[in-house]
Design goal:
Chain lengths: 432, 285
């Protein structure tokens, strides 16, 4: 690694052996390799522990092999079917065979749930039908009857006439596709029509698109609130003498460093029905004891707590821009006859725009993915898209849909970052 | 501006502005401070009792602080948080500081794209990363293990270290390293004697940021953690959702103290760095 000290021997390189004078490309490459080598461990670490999960997320949003893997023969047989009328006998035989086997291994329930997510109502068709199929198979074996396709066609239609129609078969066939856009369609509030194509859901049944809109509106609202509250604060800090500025800065930084859970707890303590603010308002007689304000577990709570949590993210970049604006500009504007308002609007504000843009974008991006705060203080009406994502990961276990929702959110955030990069430069994200 | 003639309207606006700022600062800080006295409430209420307002000594007590250490309801999560936080910080600090050194080197190839990649975990909404990590780590059998959460927290923490260390290296004169080499120092010695003292404040700040991020992280723990990985935020989460006990306020007060401590350290380091770099006129990034 001591290349520099060795290379300084300029003598007859032609007669000596090669290794002494390193080829030029190695001399040029050495520092590059060393720099890259230092960054490489973290790059590899990020690729494995972070990029890997992102790929996994995107894959899960359109790749769902579980149903096809659980019912391989059914899917193979269905490929021969034209989709009209009832399928041929061997489809019945394959399906019944796999249903009975899976039911005996107790794995059918999971598959039925998955199919049910694609076409609702299929769970009862599969589970109810398969119970009787198991019985029929046992009886046939006892009686020595051969269970061929014709037998199963008759038996299955006997159990449930719907097996004589194309609908459940189309449902199985569609659910068995390994690569699918259905999670995205569902995440955009499309539902599977009776013919198998996707149609927009009736307005009152739409869930996700309105939730995306709500998330967008709340994030914009919170960002605007942060700007309105944060701009004067940042200005005051930036124009204060150093000692006072440092103290004021600490008042912004303390919330920034305080645990999110602590801050959320304190808003609950302050705003709840029997909380500090309501008690105070009752004590000074502004409201009656039974007229206590509902300030939490609704949208108001989400707004107040999110603004509080995100405010430092707007104040800090804004402050660092304002700090670099020479105060002489405002004096100059004043001495040229501008009123304070004119000076503020035409001289000061334009110079703070980079900070405003950076701070607002950062705040907005953070707001759009917020989960913990709305989950704790939002109640029913204050939930955002991230709460729905968590719900599908943890409770409904519809991971494909969770992945599609997260991927759509990621797309939106990435688009915003491209804007941010154009405006500010992505590598200039500071910590204040 | 004090010299110019000031109209009454301007003066009113000025007072309005100051009043607004005071209100905004109260909004920022009051919610945090209000928890501290409430954590000494003798009654299991979340509001100031009449006795507390009269400063009746019987209305104040340390019972919620004692109850933190009753049983392992809070001590185990605290231990888990410390183990996970410290391990994640060590990984993040070592990898992050090395990467920052590489990125700051003038010969670093593809700097823009590499730094974008390294920063990306910090700026991706955690809910998105959390879902992906849940799928990916589960498939590797790392869900419900300490290791899985440590790896996740480390990758979220590393960007903080990269950023703070990079800031200390801004304007670093790399010929100094060449000079050290020419004077016979091997790269390791040159690093230890020349660069390390320079980046140390950044390393410490960055590791504090990384530790605080892990110490306060909840989404990943909710998705990937089992009973064995219950951390402090996770315990607070169930505390808030299920039955909110005043012990929570005592724990919160401890966390506020921690924040104050971490904040003072980082600010102290920053000011020291600024004082040292004053000649170069470098502000903070």
């Amino acid at each position: 690694m001591r290349s520099e000290s060795e290379v300084v021997t300029p003598e007859d390189t032609s007669t000596r052996q090669q290794p002494v004078a390193r080829p030029r490309w190695r001399r040029a490459l050495g520092p590059r390799l060393r720099a890259a080598g230092l960054a490489l461990p973290l790059v590899a670490f990020v690729v494995v522990t972070f990029a890997g999960p992102m790929v996994s997320l995107l894959t899960k949003s359109f790749h769902e092999p579980e149903i096809a893997d659980a019912l391989p023969e059914t899917m193979a047989a269905l490929r021969q079917w034209d989709g009209e009328g009832a399928p041929p006998d061997d489809v019945f035989a394959a399906t019944a065979g796999e249903f009975v086997a899976a039911r005996n291994e107790r794995t059918l329930g999971r598959t039925a749930n998955r199919v049910n997510r694609v076409v609702s109502g299929m769970r009862s068709v599969i589970m109810g039908g398969s119970r009787l199929m198991v019985e029929a198979a046992a009886e046939a074996e006892a009686a020595g009857v051969t269970t061929d396709g014709a037998f199963w066609r008759e038996t299955m239609i006997g159990i449930d006439v719907r097996w004589g129609t194309p609908e459940p078969w189309r449902a199985l066939r569609d659910a068995g596709q390994r690569f699918t856009a259905r999670h995205y369609l569902k995440a955009l509030d499309f539902e599977r029509g009776p013919e198998g194509g996707y149609v927009r859901q009736a307005e009152e049944w739409r869930i996700y698109v309105p939730l995306f809109w709500r998330t967008l509106k709340v994030s914009l609202g919170v960002t605007m609130l942060c700007l309105v509250v944060g701009y004067p604060i940042a200005h005051l800090i930036a124009t204060s003498p150093p000692r006072r500025a440092n103290v004021l800065l600490l008042l912004v930084l303390l919330p920034f460093w305080t645990s999110l859970l602590v801050r959320t707890t304190s808003w609950i303590v302050l705003l709840q029905n029997q909380g500090v603010v309501n008690d105070f308002l009752v004590a000074i007689g502004v409201i009656d004891d039974d007229g206590r304000l509902a300030m939490i577990y609704n949208m108001t709570g989400t707004f107040i707590a999110m603004t509080h949590v995100l405010l430092p993210f707007l104040v800090l970049p804004l402050y660092s821009v304002m700090r670099s604006i020479p105060p002489a500009y405002m004096s100059a504007a004043a001495s040229l006859g501008a009123t304070p308002l004119q000076a503020l609007r035409r001289v000061y504000w334009p110079q703070t725009l980079p900070g405003v843009g950076a701070g607002c974008l950062l705040t907005f991006i953070l707001a759009i993915g917020y989960y913990i705060t709305p989950a704790l203080v939002g109640g029913q009406s204050g939930q955002l898209i991230s709460n729905m994502i968590a719900y599908h990961v943890q409770t409904s276990l519809n991971w494909g849909l969770a992945a599609a929702l997260a991927a759509l959110l990621l797309g939106g955030v990435t688009a915003l970052y491209v804007v941010y990069d154009r405006l500010v430069g992505i590598d200039r994200i500071g910590l204040g | 501006m004090a010299g110019t003639a000031i109209s009454p309207g301007y003066r009113a606006a000025r007072w309005g502005y100051l009043a607004f700022c005071v209100a905004a600062f109260i909004f920022l800080i009051a919610p945090i401070l209000v928890l501290v006295p409430l954590s000494f409430n003798a009654e299991p209420y979340f509001t100031f009792t009449e006795g507390m307002l009269r400063f009746d000594p019987d209305a104040w007590s340390l019972r919620w602080y004692r109850s933190i250490f009753d049983g392992d309801e809070w001590t185990r999560p605290l231990l888990n948080s410390l183990v996970i936080g410290i391990s994640a910080t060590v990984v993040a600090t070592v990898l992050g500081a090395a990467a920052a050194l590489g990125l700051a080197h003038p010969a670093m190839p593809g700097r823009r794209i590499v730094s974008a990649l390294l920063i990306s975990p910090m700026i991706t909404p955690v809910i998105i990363a959390g879902v992906g990590m849940f799928f990916f780590y589960s498939s590797l059998g790392l869900a419900q293990t300490h290791l899985g959460i440590i790896l996740a927290h480390a990758v979220f923490g590393a960007p903080f270290v990269v950023i703070t260390v990079s800031a200390t290296l801004a304007g670093f004169d790399w010929t100094v390293m060449r000079a050290a080499a020419n004077l016979g120092a091997n790269p390791l010695v040159a690093f230890r004697r020349v660069q390390l003292p320079l980046i140390l404040p950044g390393v410490i700040s960055g590791s504090l940021f990384a530790f605080a991020a892990s110490f306060d992280e909840l989404v990943i723990v909710l998705f990937m953690g089992g009973l064995e990985q219950r951390t402090l935020p996770r315990q607070m989460w169930s505390g808030i959702r299920e039955e909110i006990s005043p012990t929570l306020l005592a724990v919160a007060t401890f966390l506020i103290l921690f924040a104050l401590l971490a904040l003072s350290t980082v600010e102290w380091l920053r000011r020291r760095g600024e004082a040292a770099g004053e000649g170069a006129g470098s502000g903070r990034t």
